[in-house]
Automatic annotation (TrEMBL):
Its EC number is 5.1.3.2. Pfam families: GDP_Man_Dehyd. This is UDP-glucose 4-epimerase. Pathway: Carbohydrate metabolism; galactose metabolism. Residues 2-151 form the NAD(P)-binding domain. The keyword Secreted does not apply. One of its GO terms (biological process) is galactose metabolic process. It comes from Lithocarpus litseifolius.
Length: 249
């Protein structure tokens, strides 16, 4: 579920590597089908037979249709909206997508006798913890609607396993920086032409442009690429963990 997103897609690669048959359902809210094409290219036609993609939403009949066609041994649930700020501005959207969608998923799983799930939660369920890193028995003190959707779900129905992939990630200061700079890189591409034309007209934006360009050059340094390697290893380790859990199910 939601497996052509960032963490999900890496997990799919790992699962295919381990010889699992994988079926994805994703509504493309925050992803593109080219990701599936890329995974297929990576594995070639023979091994790609183990991969199916269905565009669909947990809140409607797409899900029931999928379960009626395939008997699933276990499920990994990455499907969800995940922006804290947006969840504060539009909590209904978050409750509808994350909560109603997952409750529907639980119902369909029960109907088709699939009892095993790995659930991708979030470190935001611990609010602002007094110490880091968070561990899973910390008190749940979420402070935003997104976090509430994540903390209520395991309570709603305790299925056999829960994997807090985002805890792995969000506990890392390095990763936080990387995310900021990743976004920054994209922002830079959009902003530079605008700032450059502002500069041309002698605008006050000039100092901002200089600062942005300095930051941009940092993206090309070894320090940045070592952080990228760190990111890759984090993503892969969460994927490995998921497959190890699935194997033990
Ligand atoms: O209603 C929805 C909402 C989203 N998606 C899909 O779910 C995937 C989510 O992937 P993202 O890249 O947006 O998210 P990440 O992989 O970075 O995030 C993962 O870690 C997060 C930690 O905060 C959450 O646990 C999230 O659910 C989990 O996918 C996307 O393909 C998106 O299209 C759906 O299928 N249905």
């Amino acid at each position: 579920m939601g497996a052509i997103g960032f963490i999900g897609s890496h997990t799919v690669v790992q699962l295919l590597n381990e010889g699992f048959r994988v079926s994805i359902i994703d509504n493309l809210d925050n992803s593109i089908t080219e990701v599936v094409d890329r995974v297929r290219d990576l594995f070639g036609p023979k091994h790609s037979q183990n991969l199916e993609f269905h565009q669909g939403d947990l809140r409607n009949k797409d899900l029931e249709k999928l379960f009626s066609q395939t008997q699933f041994g276990a499920l990994i649930h990455f499907d969800g909206l995940k922006a804290v700020g947006e969840s504060v501005a539009n909590p209904r959207r978050y409750f509808d997508n994350n909560l109603i969608g997952t409750i529907n998923l639980y119902k369909v799983m029960t109907k088709y006798d699939c009892k095993k799930m790995v659930f991708s939660s979030s470190a935001t369920v611990y609010g602002q913890p007094e110490k880091m890193p968070c561990v899973e028995d910390f008190e749940l003190k979420t402070m935003n609607p997104y976090g509430r959707t994540k903390s209520l779900l395991p309570d709603y129905q305790r299925l056999s396993h829960r994997l807090n992939t985002s805890k792995l990630i969000e506990n890392s200061g390095e990763f936080q920086n990387l995310i900021v700079f990743n976004n920054f890189e994209e922002t830079l591409v959009l902003l530079v032409p605008l700032l450059a034309s502002a500069l041309e007209f002698g605008s006050v934006a000039a100092p901002a442009l200089v600062a942005l360009l300095k930051m941009g050059s940092w993206l090309l340094t070894e320090e940045f690429s070592s952080k990228l390697d760190y990111l890759r290893s984090l993503v892969l380790s969460s994927a490995l963990l998921a497959s190890a859990i699935l194997e033990g199910l």
